[in-house]
Each structure stands twice: as structure tokens, then as C-alpha cells.
Write a structure and sequence with these properties.
By secondary structure, the protein is α+β, with helices and mostly antiparallel strands. It has helices at about 45-60, 70-85, 95-105, 110-120, 125-130, 155-160, 170-180, 200-210, 230-240, 250-260, 275-280, 310-325, 330-335, 355, 360-365, 365-375, 390-400, 400-410, 415-425; strands at about 25, 30-40, 65-70, 90-95, 145-155, 265-270, 285-290, 300-305, 385, 385-390. Helix 8 crosses helix 18 (about 400-410).
């Protein structure tokens, strides 16, 4: 799973932002230079972004893009540092969670982002993808979605079928299958699932909580962690963890266990699909969404946001570049940097020949389009009705949910106490 790593540092409000870009003059012309900060540091990804930047600069000779690639693990901390020094880049690739932190501290130009989304066509985005980056008041946006991923239960069709199981449709199905395949003496387990203290555990658990009607915030923005619905979900997650690998399991352990056959099910994002393709198992993988009271589709988006405090030329340049990257043909190039892993958030992308004919996408049949369309139903903690509370960014940053999951699974601590502690520590 491509992690969303949210810094524990909180931004202080009231920054006087100074624009990084400035007008560059030459003998022949004058250019506006803006910075674009992103997390694609791998050479293959950089070559794609270099091509996109070159195409944009060719179409817009009066604008120069200076890239600032930063490792994902250091990305959010870097933004904090730059914001404090008044040198925030004009355009940034950000997670939905960190965009909330930035918006809370008034570091995002919502109007500029809204302009980009309107130019791209609001109706062209999957509803869920838009919901994840709505402003808290629902009147604007804090980022323009560029790609995303969906999480669920991945399963080995052949193994489940041989044991007499069909696709798991609800909590009970998942539990029965996990019990059946667990043989701890032979180091075989029923499900590979996150138990480490961290963001991935919060993400995995949230899908079960949301399917039970539980959320971290109510419609007034009040914390509702210590509730009966949340208690039922965390108790189930604790019970299910009996059938996963011992210790604190995170991204690597979960992926490895599923790919090497240690477990026939795994809670993971679509970022498992490139590995499944490489292993030649595309036709044998199934995908299920945990369901209890409701079906809970969980996903995240990566978005492009624009800094507040820019002068007119910088703002225009930032909007133009972000709008360019938000064109379907360019979004296609962006998601195909990780085919199968990164999912389209724009309905038009899945209809493009380049996307449909990509060898990785083709290998999974109808599954990629089904997953992409699931963005219409995405739910996350902090998204309540029409409200997308920025407060949730701080709660995720605090790590209290991931800690509670780790306490009751690895630590086998009391569920009631873990939820009470999490509730208390959000105050």
C-alpha cells in the first residue's frame, strides 16, 4: 500500500507566505517561474513527469516549472518546514489527509483549486474522489484529484474455491475463511492484515468501522470514537487478528504474506495489483469490500493543491499548470506510472485507449474499471454527510486510531480502554 504519511507536526496559523516563484527576465522574453513539489523520485516516474512538464512549457512558453521531488517519507515534514520559512511551492501533490491539515492553517487557495476543477469538469470526477477533497463547508475544494487507490479484501480465488468458499460478502464470511485456513504450527494464516501502530492500521480498521455505521466525528464535528458501534468494529478486528501473522504487521509483511501464499486473503490497497501482475496471477485475484450494516468502500486520493498568498502571475501560472495535469490525457500518463496501483479519479480516463490497452490493466479484465467506479461510494473517517471535517487531518496525524488498533491486536489490550484512551487523546 502506498502509504499516506502524515506528519505529527502541526502547522501554525498566520503564516505570511512569500511566493517561491518570481518573474524571470531574459533578453528575449519574461517568464513566470513556479515550483512543483511531488513525491515521484524514482527515475521512471521522473521521466514521465519531465515529459509532462516539457509539454506544458511548450504550450505555455511564458511559464517555467521548477520541479521539487521529495521522498514520500519526508514529504509532509518538508511542507511544514517550507511553510514556516515562507517558501511554500506554488503547486504541490498532497494526500487528502494532509491537505486538510494545510487547509486548516490557511495554506491553500481554495478559489484557485475550484477554478481548476471547474475547468476539468466537476461531473467528470467520481463523486467519492471529489468528496475526499471538499472544503469543510462543502462550497469549494482543497485539492484537484489526480489519482487514488481503493482498499478491500484481496483473495485467492482458487484456494477459496477448493475449500468450498465463495467471495466473502460480510464480516462472518471473512472470519470463517480466516479460521479455516489458519494453521499456526505450519505458519499458515487466514488473512494478512495491518496490526502495526500506524496509518495503515487506521485505514484498514476504518473500513470495518464505517461498514458498522461508526465514524470518528459526528455531524457537528464532535469526536465519537468511544461508541458502541466503534466498540463492535474494534472487537471484531481484534478477533480477526487471531488469524493473521504474529507481531506488528505493516505494508511489507502483509504484501509478502499474500504474495508468497502464507495467507489466502489480505487487507490491502490496489497497490498490490502490480505485484500480482508480475507474478502472473492476474486472473486468480478477487476483490471484496467488507460489509456489515452497510458496504464500506474505503479509498484515498492524491491531489494537486495551490498555495495561498501568490501574486496574480504566480496564481495564474499555478492554475494553468494544475489544469494541464488535470486533463484526461495527462491524468492517464500520471496513473500509468503505476498501472493497477494508482487508480483513475476521472471517469474519462478509464475510457481512453491508452489506459484500456495497457498490458497490466488488460490482464485484470473488468476489475480495474469496477474498482475505479467504486470511488463513487468512497467513505472515510471525518467525512460525514456533506461535511468533510479538516479536524480529521489532525486526528490522523496524532496516530490515536492506529495506536488503538495495535493495542488490542498485538498488545491484546482491552477494547473499551483503548477506545477511551483514543477518545481522550483527541481532546
Amino acid at each position: 500500500m502506498k502509504k499516506i504519511i502524515v506528519t505529527t507536526c502541526l502547522l501554525a496559523t498566520g503564516f505570511l507566505l512569500t511566493a517561491c516563484g518570481e518573474s524571470q527576465s531574459s533578453n528575449e522574453s519574461q517568464q513566470t517561474t513556479i515550483q512543483f513539489m511531488h513525491s515521484s523520485v524514482e527515475q521512471e516516474r521522473l521521466s514521465v513527469i519531465n515529459e509532462l512538464v516539457a509539454d506544458f512549457e511548450k504550450e505555455n512558453p511564458d511559464i517555467k516549472i521548477k520541479q521539487v521531488p521529495v521522498e514520500e517519507s519526508a514529504f509532509n515534514t518538508k511542507i511544514v518546514t517550507l511553510a514556516r520559512s515562507g517558501k511554500l511551492p506554488e503547486v504541490m501533490e498532497v494526500s487528502q489527509d494532509f491537505a486538510k491539515v494545510m487547509d486548516k492553517d490557511e495554506l491553500i487557495d481554495q478559489t484557485a483549486v475550484q477554478n481548476v476543477i471547474e475547468e476539468a469538469g466537476e461531473d467528470n470526477y467520481y463523486d467519492g474522489a471529489k468528496n475526499l477533497v471538499r472544503s469543510e463547508d462543502g462550497k469549494s475544494y482543497i485539492a484537484a484529484p489526480i489519482s487514488g487507490w481503493v482498499q478491500g479484501i484481496w483473495y485467492d480465488k482458487e484456494k477459496l474455491s477448493e475449500a468450498g468458499f465463495s467471495e466473502p460478502e460480510n464480516w462472518d464470511d471473512i472470519l470463517k475463511i480466516a479460521q479455516h485456513f489458519t494453521d499456526k504450527e505450519n505458519k499458515q494464516y487466514g488473512i494478512a492484515m495491518p496490526t502495526a501502530e500506524g496509518t495503515m492500521s487506521e485505514q484498514a480498521f476504518s473500513q470495518f468501522a464505517l461498514s458498522n455505521g461508526a465514524n470518528v466525528l459526528d455531524d457537528e464535528g464532535e469526536v465519537t470514537i468511544d461508541t458502541e458501534k466503534m466498540r463492535e468494529a474494534l472487537s471484531f478486528y481484534q478477533n480477526l487478528s487471531q488469524y493473521t501473522m504474529p507481531g506488528s504487521n505493516d505494508v511489507t509483511e502483509i504484501k509478502d504474506a499474500f504474495m508468497n501464499g502464507t495467507a489466502p486473503m489480505a487487507i490491502y490497497s490496489t497497490y498490490i495489483l502490480p505485484s500480482v501482475y508480475e507474478a502472473g496471477s492476474s486472473e486468480n485475484i478477487g476483490f471484496a469490500i467488507p460489509t456489515q450494516k452497510d458496504q464500506a468502500v474505503y479509498g484515498t486520493v492524491s491531489g494537486l493543491t495551490i498555495s495561498s498568498g501568490l501574486d496574480e502571475k504566480q496564481k495564474e501560472a499555478a492554475e494553468a499548470f494544475t489544469a494541464f495535469l488535470s486533463q484526461p490525457k495527462n491524468m492517464e500518463k500520471w496513473v500509468l506510472m503505476s498501472p493497477g496501483g494508482a487508480q483513475p479519479v476521472n471517469k474519462q480516463v478509464v475510457e481512453l485507449d491508452g489506459y484500456k490497452e495497457n498490458e497490466v490493466i488488460k490482464s485484470f479484465g473488468e476489475l480495474p474499471s469496477e474498482i475505479a467506479s467504486a470511488f463513487d461510494e468512497v467513505q472515510v473517517f471525518g467525512l460525514v454527510g456533506e461535511k468533510n471535517f479538516t479536524k480529521m487531518g489532525d486526528i490522523t496525524s496524532s496516530g490515536v486510531i492506529g495506536k488503538a488498533v495495535n493495542q488490542v491486536t498485538v498488545g491484546n489490550e482491552d477494547v473499551d480502554q483503548a477506545l477511551a484512551d483514543a477518545q481522550k487523546n483527541t481532546k
